[in-house]
Amino acid sequence: MPDTVIQVENLGKMYTIGHQQKGSYRYTALRDVLADGAGAFLRKLRRPGKSFTPFNREEFWALKDLSFEIKQGEMVGIIGRNGAGKSTLLKILSRITEPTTGRVRLKGRVASLLEVGTGFHPELTGRENIFLNGAILGMRRAEINHKFDEIVDFAEVSKFLDTPVKRYSSGMYVRLAFSVAAHLDPEILIIDEVLAVGDIQFQKKCLKKLESIEDSHRTIVFVSHNMSTIKGLCSRALLIKDGEIVKDDMPETVATHYLADAQEQQAMIDFKDSYTAAEISFLKAYLCDKENNLSSSFDNRDAFAIHLEYKLHKEIRGLRIGFLMETIEGIQVCGATDFVFTDSTRKPGIYKSKCLFPAHILNSGKYTILFGADKFPYTQSLMRTEHCLTFEIEDIDRERPLYDRRPGIIKPTLTWQVVRPYPKNQ
């Protein structure tokens, strides 16, 4: 039987969050800090037993009593909504963060790709960072040299190999970071959804590489919001909700449970600061019926509208805003973008992209939508959300109320012709 390479026992991670008390100032200057420090010192001298602080402290448990094992050669997908605790778990498995309670046992070398540039020194060149990462993994220089050309070829950064990585684009960072992590033969590879940002063709290349790594009986822990990727690559999946594992099963079963749990029909979402980048921030998304009212339930015979509000922080040429629609089972239905012209430029400001989805297309059932943004030449993703809007299509046939549901995802209204066969020659 395969060995256990990751063993997690009663794992918990607690953070302390500070909240300013009501009435405390919002802006703090240096003189305020010095004055407060002096004041607090004097108050302590006068009343040593009393604590004076402008903050209330709150304990937040990002992970609660997690226990599971992963065998050698397994590819395990981690699923969960934003804030569920997925990234915290990966940081603990990668030895970046210490757990508050419990313990983790790892057998073998661990390589992780958690976010752009993790593990790279910005002042060092791409070449130097390859050797640095290899050394961190405990590899000899001869072993790294043996893999060096393969790493560079896969990452497609040969022209910039002797350039400090602080001058790399985010796409170059991701390509080199993934290539290093995948080719330096770690026994355990941990990947967050960093691959969702970057070149589409390179993402496909990475997925093929992950398949070859799995075939070599190395262990992979993979976080993704893409249910198709999880179901296509992984042999097992864990669903995390509010810091706890609520499902550990086959990927198809866990994905269905996750989407079903998320399908509390949601007609509108305020992204707040969840999705913001240097060039664009998503503000709000919502669904409206044919009368422009917020709704999460629509008749198959009626059109409905999909809205996304966003803010551009700088001028963008060839921007595309789009959505991907899936069924509750994670089957992709369709995608669409607001693309018009490559050379069109959108200036900084707040925008809304609206898509009118026609009637007589979707079959009855539950559906979910996620949003994304990219720009010309459309190989680099600027932003991608998780599934954030959910809705139901109802098949209300008033003339035939007992009519059975048609098979399939779509239910178009099609034009038929019935032609009487030509009479046979007598």
From TrEMBL:
The keyword ATP-binding applies. It comes from the Bacteria. Residues 45-267 form the ABC transporter domain. Keywords: ATP-binding, Nucleotide-binding, Transport. SMART domains: AAA (SM00382). GO terms for molecular function: ABC-type transporter activity; ATP binding; ATP hydrolysis activity. The keyword ATP-binding applies. GO terms for cellular component: membrane. Belongs to the ABC transporter superfamily. This is ABC transporter ATP-binding protein. It comes from Leptothoe spongobia TAU-MAC 1115. The lineage of its organism: Bacteria, Bacillati, Cyanobacteriota, Cyanophyceae, Nodosilineales.
